[in-house]
């Protein structure tokens, strides 16, 4: 089978315009159906609704008290009360009761003085219809309640039921068929256990949930293998049932990427390739019956961009509905974001409010990492005509999480430690949860983040050989002007993470120069890297003598994964990372891992919570059970060595 090379890429806007011009005759494709009112939430009325009954259907007391004839009460005032007699002049009544025949006002019980069982005195007149909800006050039978095209809200259900409308005629839901494809993808409904080369299918569920948010009806079928004839058969069958068909994966240039050919068998391909990343190989086409067909890339993030930025606007347009823009806020970029000219780029970011302004921390760009979308609280779009943004630039950022979560998020930037995950969990278990967003850029990066007010606190473990002190000499150099405090999180064991059973018998740093040992390093600026270089220097070992010295990872866990998978034989890291992956650990040094905080923020409630948690007995116990941690100083303010 020949490969699809997609050369005619168009912008997202052009792609939408192109397909719309061909679908024009197919707008408002939805038929209608009659459904019970209580099932009609967020459905769109296909014809106007008129009230069956009035509400109230009778004159009703609006307060607890007595029903009166208003003209009997005229003249009553303080010092000149009117006396009323039961049954003749007044009748006791409760809120919601029908007003007795002939009565036209209600006096609240608080304004009534009982002289005896049957006689009351009032000192204020009642005006006609005082405290009475008259027939039809809310709804008058036969009046128009909602026009056609109205989308039914939870309140509207109350209005419809009160007006005696128990069934409504609504537009049918737009049905979207979803066909996941690929020999390697496993149907998640079967709870599969993936082997090498296999992937649990998840994109169809992401799309199904998005479709529910957009008031559509998803119709998903189990994954179909990379078999052209079978793909045509399955997609054709599903196409008959739905208004729109989405085919997942197989969109790019691989030898088994059949989506374009399948779309050609069903109709015509209109767009293949958009000037956007992720999402580049997206396809748009039209079936012979005139239905929209979308080919979504297989990478999860690329698929989401295709769903949200191509499919979503087309769904709303086909239904003849207005589409709201995504909610955005302005954020200050904490890192530069270079971008390729001619491509619109979508960048996932974490957002936090630091020092009264929102900051955004870019996450990795890989389109295969669905977790980046789960971790992200914002999304930045870099225009095709832009080469990106500089650090510190204010950028419009789409919010992906509830505003409250973003407002309350604490940002920690710096060196990575597994205790931050423990802290994250503890903060979320508080009565008023605090969200912790952590970015791992090494200790030096953390210090700079505090200097620039990009983070609430930074994790740092920088050893200074000259003073044999931790962190203070670096703080003095990088933020000499700033008033900060250094709070200890833990003393932790750094050492060599090696495979289970230590098959290469690695014992000391001297073993790193052996021919049969491959090392995995941490990135420049990481405290662990500085520690390594310090000891190598002491032992007079040159980096060039170590295989793998140039291979860098950003976290202890990533180093441990390299050892677990055999990519490397060892790496320098913390014991907790080795223990988490059931690897062996050769302890080398104890080091101090601190949190750097601006003094002025020390009393902020969320920072106080952090300090309370890390000083607590439960946190200490949980941390110590991870292995390699000593929490005797945790929560204490550190002082420089004299
Ligand atoms: N030579 C080229 N290769 C690729 C190009 C290119 O331009 N030239 N484009 C790349 C880009 S960009 C993307 S995006 C991907 C899109 O790939 P496909 O749509 O063909 O998808 P697959 O290759 O079948 O799968 C990619 C990846 O995603 C996983 N996958 C697939 N379906 C699902 C699903 N339903 N749920 C979860 N994960 C899924 C699949 O296993 C693969 O790992 O192509 C690049 N290649
Ligand atoms: O553009 Mo692909 O869509 O990066 O992942």
TrEMBL record:
Enzyme class label: transferase
Single GO MF descriptor: metal ion binding
Xref: InterPro entries: MoaB/Mog-like_dom_sf, MoaB/Mog_dom, MoeA-like, MoeA_C_domain_IV, MoeA_C_domain_IV_sf, MoeA_linker/N, MoeA_linker/N_sf, PBP_domain
Keyword Repeat: no
Record flagged with keyword Lipid biosynthesis: no
Record keywords: Magnesium, Metal-binding, Molybdenum, Molybdenum cofactor biosynthesis, Transferase
A GO cellular component annotation in the UniProt record: cytosol
Domain of life: Bacteria
UniProt cross-references to SMART domains, sorted A to Z: MoCF_biosynth
EC number: 2.10.1.1
GO annotation (BP), single: Mo-molybdopterin cofactor biosynthetic process
Pathway: Cofactor biosynthesis; molybdopterin biosynthesis
Cofactor(s) in the UniProt record: Mg(2+)
Signal peptide: none
Domain MoaB/Mog: 177-317
Catalytic activity field: adenylyl-molybdopterin + molybdate = Mo-molybdopterin + AMP + H(+)
PANTHER family: MOLYBDOPTERIN BIOSYNTHESIS PROTEIN (PTHR10192), MOLYBDOPTERIN MOLYBDENUMTRANSFERASE (PTHR10192:SF16)
Described purpose of this protein according to its UniProt entry: Catalyzes the insertion of molybdate into adenylated molybdopterin with the concomitant release of AMP.
Family: Belongs to the MoeA family.
Protein name: Molybdopterin molybdenumtransferase
